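Support request, please re-run this one:
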Amino acid sequence: MNQAIRNSWVAAIAMFALIFGALSFVQVIGADELKANAWNKRAILQNYCNDRGAIIVGGAPVAESVEGSEQCKFQRTYPQPELYAGLTGYFSQNYGATGLEQAMREQLAGSSDQQFLDRVGQLFLGNQPKGASVELTVDPEIQKLAYDLIPDGQRGSIVVTNPKTGAILAMVSKPSYDPNLVATQDPTAESTNINELVKVPGINLNQNVSGPTGELLAPGSVFKLVDTAAALSSGKYNKDSELPNPANMPFPGIQYTLPNYAGGNCYTQDTASFAFALQQSCNTPFASIALDLGRDAIAEQAAKFGFGEDLGDQLKLQYAKGNGFPDDLDGPGLAQSAIGQKDVRATPLQVALMTAAIANGGIQMSPSLVKTVRSPDLRVIEEPEPEVLRTSTTPQIASQITEWMTSAVSQGIARGAAVPGVQVAGKTGTAELGNGLNNSWFTGFAPANNPQVGVTIVMEGVDITTGAQLTSPNAKKIFEAVLNK
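Re-run finished. Output below.
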């Protein structure tokens, strides 16, 4: 009898161990594999129909979950879709998630490590998990202003930052799209809508990044700020250096010549100071610097400003890092690259971060979009602090470049960005595309002696006149709006 009881206990313990082991495997070891299984429709539907946390700007949701249907209790909606699509991305039953919906998926779904106790509490109450809300650093008024400054039908991007903290105050691009078209619970409409959206040039649904973080463009003359920092860092140049400024730069053995910029007053002087060369955005002085210092010196300084680096982890968005400064350049190639042409490519955000480093005394701050993450009971569970990303140059060099950028606005071709009563530092850029069209840039900050705001604007595929109208004057409007708040 005792033996029979003993055998029954052994069998019971073995069965308990088997069940416990199976549950442990499913919940711990095999959980990720099961979640990723394409046949696991239950997991997809459970996540899709849950009460996902809101993405908030200025106290108002720009992405939120509202009551849905009997089959799906919650529906993801985007109250200001085109204005914030480049930040929020979309959350789709069949096409997954992009933007912050993807990058902050654990917090929004309530499954992050910091939300463990919340999940336990909801489990005891018999409630479905609720996601945390994610509040952004974006200023809604500046975001709206920047978006409206890009004409409908015009491809362009604007980034507005706080140079001292790295916080992004606005980040917009056109064309944009309506994420509600992809987040619909109607699978037929969802498929039709996304097939139409991917046909629109400039909407990067498949690339999963927006214009400011994903559009790789030739930076044109704004790259001359890199050349200037490299020159001053080398010890071969100083604030009093005179630079060769020929109308055309020849190269031995070939017929190609690099022309000077024809839009300013570069042609009036055979030599130029740094101040004049930046004021008028002359090409040949900076090409001369690059040929003198060599490719590696320019590449090293570009890397110090972050060119070629993936900033996605800091930003919480996917990021197109570009190619840094090209390798294997001959003389003409190095000269063209030094003025931001040939194969040099950067995102608008990268140009904004370069400028912010100059504004911040040579210290580049990590770009940040997330201000706070709050649990459903409004308890703060994440509050990122400003973080230094790197030292891009010395305070002395940053101060000298700021002085020259200020003269480019007060006396040079960036004067459209001037704000009465405020010293503005700025640099324009024109990257030639052929057929008389260009990518037109402005990047700068204000006040120059105590920077509160940085603005970078690029308008794609415009003529010289249109570019001049849509960059520096629009930067002025943003400077005024931020400084007057």
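The CA atoms of residues 68 and 74 lie 4 Å apart. The longest helix spans residues 2-29.
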